[in-house]
């Protein structure tokens, strides 16, 4: 089977590290035919993926962060052919965390060579795929605000500035939530719909989410006073926010609809969309084969 390594040269903290010698040293010991291609911009990984699937490459490895993984996954899903591999080189690497893929480069390449495959679910919101989490509300606005600062500040500083800005500007959202024949009116801080277990670089928003169970895990956090967020928000990192059960609720559904009269920020695996009216969250009937 032929392997294409699709490298995002600007992903993550290791962006100056040349991955080629690592790939060579592991792959040259095997019989795999392989090639290494570098991406040139947004969505290029998806275009290359489709091209190499047409060239009969059976494994397409995303070398980068969750953005690169998602682009390769959407190419594979579009073609309905091919196996996804991951060499985590992003800042967050949330899908790799969910699947216990080693964050160490050499170890993750060894996993590709071993080729143990798992079939995972693909989430869809507003025609966009997500492997980790789609969300609206406070966290989605942090993603949006962080992007503004990312242009001129380093990752962690930009993220902190994004949180601060969101704390000042955020207003709770009045929405309708519909699932399993139930319709609810809610005033929320956020709603996160999880396929995988992590987002935001290791935050366990839905700690019981299982990416293979054909279900979406949903975390609904009701609107709370901003000072209370100082306690609640850090607890999301280790998935302990469920203890604030007056505000935090978990449900498991096969699909979910949200209606918002006003424009709302939707985060789909780190991509930001602005939308209003109906927002839908589903699972694709197609699965994704991935090397773990
Ligand atoms: N040559 C390139 N120049 C600029 N942007 C690129 C290039 N190649 C890919 N990209 C874009 O870079 C973005 C970020 O990639 P990715 O998410 O993999 O890295 P990251 O943001 O460092 O990691 P993470 O999402 O795990 O935090 C993606 O949206 C991708 O489309």
Automatic annotation (TrEMBL):
Pfam families: DAGK_cat, YegS_C. Residues 1-129 form the DAGKc domain. Keywords: ATP-binding, Kinase, Lipid biosynthesis, Lipid metabolism, Magnesium, Metal-binding, Nucleotide-binding, Phospholipid biosynthesis, Phospholipid metabolism, Transferase. SMART domains: DAGKc. GO terms for biological process: phospholipid biosynthetic process. Its cofactor is Mg(2+). GO terms for molecular function: ATP binding; kinase activity; metal ion binding. Belongs to the diacylglycerol/lipid kinase family. This is Diacylglycerol kinase family lipid kinase. It comes from Anaeromonas frigoriresistens.
